[in-house]
Amino acid sequence: MNDLSNTIISEFKRASNKVLAPQMAAYMKNNFDFFGIKSPLRNNIQKPFMIKKYLIHKLEMINEVKILWNEPQRELQYFAQEYAYKYISSVDESDIYFYEWLIINKSWWDTVDFIAPKLVGNYFMKYPQNKELIINKWINSNNIWLQRSAILFQLKYKSETDTEFLAYIISSLNGSNEFFINKAIGWVLREYGKTNPQWVENFCSKTELSKLSQKEALRIIVKDKNIEV
Description:
Blueprint: H1 3-14, H2 20-27, H3 39-46, H4 58-69, H5 74-85, H6 95-104, H7 109-126, H8 131-139, H9 144-152, H10 163-173, H11 179-193, H12 197-206, H13 211-228
Helix pairs in contact: 4-5, 5-7, 6-7, 7-9, 8-9, 9-11, 11-12, 11-13, 12-13
């Protein structure tokens, strides 16, 4: 174990809370152990490590992040993904395989919903030429977390959203019985609806979405229309 991971684990252990730990684990369906550190305290503990001038070499970062990712306590994965995000300005073309590794290991919505828009989303902004190949691979992977990431990587793109590609991704995964897929479809449509509600309305009217996806997609649009009436 290297210096960064060793130090972070020691600091988090020192701040552990035996009362909160089982409560936080229960919220995550007991899929992971927890130290019992809530986000404000965790952010305060890890803040010094996030200062730019103290960041380690990128290759060391990837190694450290993987070490922390393999630890049982979920707070260490939260730190690890946020630490990886500090290197987003120096993303390399091969980093998509590192992000893919993060998605398919210790998979759950709490990490995937950070990785997809923040790491993968920024990656494809820089390397759009790789988008079709990688996303099609994820769509056809039968891994719901890669599929969810394929849906959500454009979540924060706003006016830069590739609507043709978004429609293709949704259509490719539409009809799933998987909650996390249908929820993601509704979420990405709802978010893009803040930028282009007409496009979302038109898409939903022409596409037979699940009830969950449809409800989530149109929630804000319907609410706004009711307010106007």
